[in-house]
Write a structure and sequence with these properties.
The complex is a heterodimer of chains A (362) and B (239). Chain A is mainly beta and 362 residues long. Chain A contains three helices and 19 strands. Chain B has 239 residues and is mainly beta. Classes of the chains: A mainly beta (362), B mainly beta (239).
Chain lengths: 362, 239
């Protein structure tokens, strides 16, 4: 505990030192508290306290041919969060009631030379256009404990070759160090007739699967986007495809509507427990999903979002209602109500979660 | 009588046409390239002013923007012709801002994305009419009315007050088809660069919002500089 206190006491002068050395430092402090409710007849209390104090530090240093980029989260977790995450190997017990989880989201260097960039280290790899359901996104999964659906960093080596002003070709090797999924990806991005398009080909080592897919985004009345992925496995029962189509539209310059439909052709009974975690769209493993999201930006200060993710076959829902208020330029207050039916995220019960967050950006 | 008709005829030959006024305005305002540091002050009713700062590199119809204020430092824009992408550095995610989304406000200001995307010379898409002359802020101005002749324009009707001496717009009002006032632009301070002129302080007010305005201040500007085409690539946006 003493070492930890010392670490945080020394961290701030060190960040100031880094800033003086031309590192750009930014980040936030977050304080979050709330409760989780689920109905389990076997326990005496169904309400659980949720508490989290987080400190995120982002740092960048840019040179002509080199860039260092990092983002590290220090999360102090209390209540149910502590019980839920304490088994992870990136946690440290602080007191009987709290743990510290350290998450290196990004830490990579970029070597830049003429038309080629090399990215080495932990990075966020986002493929495709989907918001939550994202068949092309085979590596950087969503962190569902974060309400902003932030993605998990993966250790990778990536080379990016520019081929036009809006196009590039990427070759990526993903190591299995932190996500237990390794693979080789070839990705091509371009812009044709006003549409953004991408194609990916991927070989996933652990499963001996080949995946091919594409994504698109353009404009027909509203924004139209989508992605599709075909997985080829030696065993015919393990071959499948996933696709997503989405539409977004803005009304009165204040309301943004997003609708998405996603389809999975696989039958999870054909896959082992280990293979299931490798499936695209994991943990959304049913056939059909429908997402609708409405965001109201009445002004710069207030922002209301309502999202419903509906599993069509079993009629299960995951619902989020959130209200965000900007108190000052760098201070935001938000409240979030989340509801999910049993089995949606592997929980055996219907759950309701309410959180109040205050975030100070620096 | 004949003499007066001749005078009127000669006067009409010498008088500047509204199209010529706009051509002179366009010539005055259009730089081949520029690098600017811009401050945006966003005023909201009963709230403290929100300040956004950004640096922009402009070359022809393309521009690249990096926000400089701490809370938005992860945001970058790339505009190529009439298309625009936003990059969120924190999540390393690129979004295409397409069609209807361009009507959304840029960073909560009174300026929409399509306001900054306008690149074509406006007289080509509008019927132009000189409707009078007025004094505005002690400057003598032409008052010009523009009515859209094609569908692919941001606004149906625009009224401009153009300084007769400098050929620079001092004010612009934007109207919907039903004559409802949508937005006003006021150019309060100008500076000269060679034979051109640019606004260093302007005020934009979205009339569909109540009591808001955005003050745009150009803090630093360099014009007609060589900017590498590399800035206007998706690779650079995502770097």
């Amino acid at each position: 505990m003493f070492i930890l206190r010392l670490f945080f006491i020394l961290l701030f002068p060190y960040l100031i030192f880094l800033q003086d050395r031309n590192f750009e430092i930014s980040g936030h402090f977050l304080n979050s508290f709330g409760f989780l409710y689920f109905e389990d007849v076997e326990i005496s209390s169904n309400n659980f306290y949720l508490g989290r104090s987080a400190f995120r530090v982002n740092f960048i240093k840019k040179k002509e041919f080199l860039k260092i980029d990092g983002s590290i989260d220090f999360n102090f977790l209390y209540g149910f969060y502590k019980n839920f995450f304490q088994h992870l190997n990136n946690t440290l017990k602080i007191t009987e009631d709290s743990i510290l989880a350290i998450d290196i989201r990004k830490l990579y260097i970029v070597l830049k030379y003429r038309f080629l960039d090399l990215y080495i280290g932990r990075q966020l790899l986002k493929f495709g256009e989907g918001y939550i359901l994202n068949p092309l996104n085979l590596f950087s999964g969503i962190d569902f404990s974060e309400k902003t659906f932030t993605r998990v960093g993966v250790d990778a080596f990536r080379s990016k070759l520019q081929i036009s002003n809006m196009g590039y070709l990427e070759g990526i090797f993903v190591s299995k160090v932190n996500v237990k999924k390794s693979g080789y990806v070839l990705k091509f991005i371009s812009s044709i007739f006003g549409w953004d398009i991408s194609f990916i080909g991927c070989y996933r080592e652990e499963l001996d699967w080949l995946s091919f897919g594409f994504s698109y985004k353009g404009d027909i009345v509203g924004g139209l986007y989508g992605e599709m992925l075909y997985n080829y496995a030696v065993e015919p029962t393990k071959r499948f495809y996933n696709f997503l189509v989405g539409f977004d539209y803005s009304f009165y310059q204040k309301i943004l509507l997003r609708l998405e439909y996603a389809y999975n052709s696989f039958d999870i009974n054909n896959f082992s427990r280990n293979e299931i975690s490798f499936l695209p769209n994991f943990p959304f493993l049913s056939k059909h999903y429908f997402i609708s999201q409405v965001t109201i930006f009445s002004n710069l200060i207030d922002n209301i979002t309502f999202l419903i993710l509906h599993e069509i076959t079993s009629k299960k829902n995951f619902i989020i209602f959130s209200y965000k208020k900007s108190i000052f330029s760098n201070v935001e207050l938000s409240s979030t109500l989340r509801y999910s039916n049993r089995d949606f995220f592997g929980f055996e019960f219907d759950t309701v979660c309410f959180l109040i967050d205050i975030i100070l950006k620096f | 009588m004949k003499f007066f008709l001749w005078v009127a005829f000669i006067h009409s030959l010498l008088a500047i046409t509204p199209e010529e006024i706009l051509k002179k305005v366009d010539k005055n305002l259009n730089f081949s390239s520029a690098i600017m540091n811009i401050k945006m002050e966003i005023y909201l009713p009963d709230k403290s002013v929100r300040i956004k700062k950004f640096k922009t590199w402009i070359s022809g119809n393309n521009s690249y923007v990096e926000f400089l204020n701490k809370e938005d430092k992860h945001v970058r824009y790339l505009k190529i012709g009439k298309r625009m992408w936003i990059y969120d550095k924190e999540e390393e995610n690129t979004f295409l801002i397409s069609g209807h989304l361009l009507k959304q406000s840029m960073m909560g200001s009174d300026i929409s994305y399509e306001d900054i995307l306008e690149t074509e010379q406006i007289y080509t898409n509008y019927d132009v009419k000189l409707i009078g002359e007025e004094n505005l802020r002690e400057r003598s101005c032409y008052v010009i009315l523009l009515t859209a002749k094609v569908k692919e324009v941001n606004y149906f009707k625009r009224k401009m007050w153009i300084d007769k001496e400098q050929f620079f717009p001092l004010k612009e009002e934007i109207y919907a088809k039903n004559d409802k006032l949508l937005k006003t632009f006021e150019y309060l301070e100008i500076e000269f660069y060679k034979d051109k002129v640019y606004p260093t302080k302007s005020v934009v007010s979205d009339k569909l919002k109540i009591g808001t305005k955005t003050v745009v201040i150009i803090e630093e500007a360099i014009f007609d500089v060589e900017i590498s085409s590399y800035y206007f690539t998706r690779r650079y946006l995502e770097r």
